[in-house]
């Protein structure tokens, strides 16, 4: 890995040109000179810009230029954002914009991981108060051995693809897809990756020092931080601590559902804020903003104390307790498969649609993959959290959650040879109170089995949380929204009874230890197995038959040299078959033919037509042919599409024939036998021989 600065993008606050092999990414970090007013969050934006010239491609479509970011670009933006976001000072409100422009791609060296390291370097030399550096690597495993940043060839045989990012002291982010890898191996892989990350961090520290010495890096700025007024916080604590404590304790004891709990807590907060607005800080808007922040901080502190000290959660559950689960399948009569998964107040409906091979998604990106036949889409409508707001297209969150669920199920999807369908899953989040992405994994497993897709094993998923106070910590199974918001970690784990298929870990603190990871993975397995047992009570294996409304796929192979016979000039022949039968036909370059038909009879008819178009005429075989031309010396008969032979006048009947027209006319269908095919491919036919053969059969 080579990182340089000072040659490109010199007006950005910080910029590096990062090369890893022949992969090159320009990463810039820019911040606003002043903090943004009126917000209570850190305004960080990350854009990962794919340029198709990086792989020598011209964009498809009419406009011939890059448009909206691809799903891969959005996922890569999230991959950069997640490990750097926790490492900015609390209360920092300056806008920070990271742009990673992919300029050249060598498929053996991942541009997204290069971009994470580049973003870390750009921030370190920018003067922006970033508490890094961080490093990132991909860990693969081939033949039981871990490999850092595997090549394309190694990745194809690797049983995991694990992206790890962290500081020299701790892991901050994990993103993984795996082929049922045991939890202990995942933990080893994370530790193995972290050892390499330490070397990258050391390299970036040296790079930063050299840049500072050379005057091309800016000293770290002293940021303006929006922090609580200590005196106001003290007053709020003295007045409101007991009230907030009693409010949260009542929520725990009465196990209020989400909406009732939110209203109950909000009423208590409003009473506290009203007191300060009327009695302590009348008409002082700035002070009242600090009061609101102090009340929120108090709520977080007390909730965390209940978990750490009393080992009880806001809804009364134990730390490792999963909310009540309910599963249903087959609830939509005309779809190909459906599964409804409810866990507490999180509910996901997943619908499976089976399509022809030609329905696969075509990818126009920087990777080597050009299409995919299994897709998972995730929708999060506002009513799922009781809100009324505009519905737009899928955002980064929806795309990220869909990709996570897709990754979790992908190792269990049967191959095209076993199940020649394109598979699309759509997860509709109907209710949300934590971990809807793992709910979509469970709903998808139910839906796939309901659709009769022969998945290798069922997959379940669970989200783990963390509350950490100094050296004490508590790992939570099946976190809900409030625990995600006020906790320190969101650690999603999906897999089968054999092992892990997907992981996504994000934390809000500066890193977590191996001990916490081990506890989280062990506890997650227990939670996953409990959820899976509830799912299998409803449907324990794929249905033996697919839905009657799903297309039946007929697959067979023809000689690749004869594909043109099926396509016809300008596609006329194949269009005619489709119009006549109503089926969908896909033909691969290697001669594989896929016919998709809801009506099985129509599918068989289409196959018969294709068989005739690609069949060879055989000597000695009988054919029902059609007379296409009459000459004085005989009749030309089409025995197969586009293949004609001559029935000489002497071969038209057993008796002597004076005129051809006395026996046959153009358009007549007659039975003929192939008697000879000469060296020039000319076919000789005999109606007389065919009649004899028929008489012998009848007698």
From TrEMBL:
Annotated binding of Mg(2+), by residue: 484, 490
Reaction catalysed by this enzyme: RNA(n+1) + phosphate = RNA(n) + a ribonucleoside 5'-diphosphate
CC annotations in GO: cytosol
Gene3D superfamilies, per the entry: GHMP Kinase, N-terminal domain (3.30.230.70), K Homology domain, type 1 (3.30.1370.10), Nucleic acid-binding proteins (2.40.50.140)
An example Gene Ontology molecular-function term: polyribonucleotide nucleotidyltransferase activity
GO biological process: mRNA catabolic process; RNA processing
Family classification: Belongs to the polyribonucleotide nucleotidyltransferase family.
Record PANTHER family: POLYRIBONUCLEOTIDE NUCLEOTIDYLTRANSFERASE, POLYRIBONUCLEOTIDE NUCLEOTIDYLTRANSFERASE 1, MITOCHONDRIAL
Protein name: Polyribonucleotide nucleotidyltransferase
Gene from which this protein is expressed: pnp
């Amino acid at each position: 890995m080579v990182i340089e600065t000072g040659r490109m993008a010199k007006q950005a606050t910080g910029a590096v040109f990062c090369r890893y092999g022949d992969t090159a990414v320009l990463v810039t970090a820019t911040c606003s000179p002043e903090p943004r007013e009126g917000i209570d969050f850190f305004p960080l934006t990350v854009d990962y810009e794919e340029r198709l010239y990086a792989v020598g491609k011209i964009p498809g479509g009419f406009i011939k230029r890059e448009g909206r970011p691809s799903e891969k670009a959005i996922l890569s933006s999230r991959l950069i954002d997640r490990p750097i976001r926790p490492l900015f000072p609390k209360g920092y409100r300056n806008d920070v914009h990271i742009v990673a422009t992919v300029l050249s791609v060598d498929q053996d060296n991942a541009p997204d991981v290069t971009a994470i390291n580049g973003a870390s370097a750009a921030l370190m030399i920018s003067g922006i108060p970033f508490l890094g550096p961080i490093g990132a690597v991909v860990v693969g495993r081939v033949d039981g051995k871990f490999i850092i940043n595997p090549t394309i060839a190694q990745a194809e045989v690797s049983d995991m693809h694990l992206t790890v990012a962290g500081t020299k002291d701790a892991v901050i982010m994990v993103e993984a897809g795996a082929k049922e890898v045991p939890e202990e191996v995942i933990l080893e892989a994370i530790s193995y990756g972290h050892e390499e990350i330490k070397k990258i961090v050391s390299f970036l520290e040296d790079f930063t020092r050299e840049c500072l010495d050379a005057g091309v890096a800016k000293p770290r700025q002293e940021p303006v931080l929006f922090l609580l007024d200590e005196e106001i916080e003290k007053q709020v604590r003295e007045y409101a601590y007991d009230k907030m404590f009693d409010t949260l304790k009542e929520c725990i004891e009465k196990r209020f559902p989400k909406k009732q709990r939110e209203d109950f807590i909000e009423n208590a907060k409003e009473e506290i804020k009203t007191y300060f607005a009327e009695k302590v800080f009348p008409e002082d808007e700035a002070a009242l903003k600090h009061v609101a922040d102090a009340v929120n901080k108090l709520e977080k502190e007390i909730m965390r104390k209940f978990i750490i000290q009393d080992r009880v959660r806001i809804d009364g559950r134990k730390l490792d307790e999963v909310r009540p689960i309910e599963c249903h399948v087959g609830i939509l009569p005309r779809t190909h498969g459906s599964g409804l998964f409810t866990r507490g107040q999180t509910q996901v409906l997943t619908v499976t649609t089976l399509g022809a091979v030609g329905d696969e998604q075509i990818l126009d990106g920087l990777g080597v993959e050009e299409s995919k036949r299994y897709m998972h889409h995730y929708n999060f409508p506002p009513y799922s959290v009781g809100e009324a707001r505009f519905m737009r297209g899928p955002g980064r969150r929806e795309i990220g959650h869909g990709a996570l669920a897709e990754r979790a199920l992908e190792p269990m999807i049967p191959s095209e040879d076993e199940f020649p369908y394109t598979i699309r899953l759509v997860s509709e989040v109907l209710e949300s109170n934590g971990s809807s992405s793992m709910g979509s994994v469970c709903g998808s497993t139910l839906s796939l089995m309901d659709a009769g897709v022969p998945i290798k094993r069922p997959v379940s998923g669970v989200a783990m949380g963390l509350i950490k106070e100094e050296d004490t910590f508590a790992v939570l199974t099946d976190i809900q929204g409030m625990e995600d918001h006020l906790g320190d970690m969101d650690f999603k784990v999906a897999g089968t009874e054999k092992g892990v298929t997907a992981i996504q870990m994000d934390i809000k603190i500066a890193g977590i230890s191996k001990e916490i990871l081990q506890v989280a993975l062990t506890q997650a397995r227990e939670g996953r197995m409990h959820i899976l047992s509830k799912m299998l009570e409803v449907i324990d294996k794929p249905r033996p038959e697919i839905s009657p409304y799903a297309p039946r796929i007929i697959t067979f192979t023809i000689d690749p040299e004869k594909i043109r016979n099926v396509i016809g000039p300008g596609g006329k022949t194949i269009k005619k078959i489709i119009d006549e039968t109503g089926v969908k036909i896909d033909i691969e370059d290697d001669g594989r033919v896929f016919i998709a038909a809801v009506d099985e009879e129509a599918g068989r008819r289409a196959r018969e037509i294709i068989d005739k178009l690609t069949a060879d005429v055989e000597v000695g075989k009988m054919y029902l042919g059609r007379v296409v031309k009459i000459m004085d010396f005989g009749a030309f008969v089409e025995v197969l599409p586009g293949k004609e032979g001559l029935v000489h006048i002497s071969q038209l009947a057993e008796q002597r024939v004076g005129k051809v027209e006395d026996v046959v006319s153009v358009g007549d269908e007659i039975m003929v036998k192939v008697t000879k095919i000469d060296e020039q491919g000319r076919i000789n036919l005999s109606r007389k021989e065919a009649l004899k053969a028929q008489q012998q059969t009848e007698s």
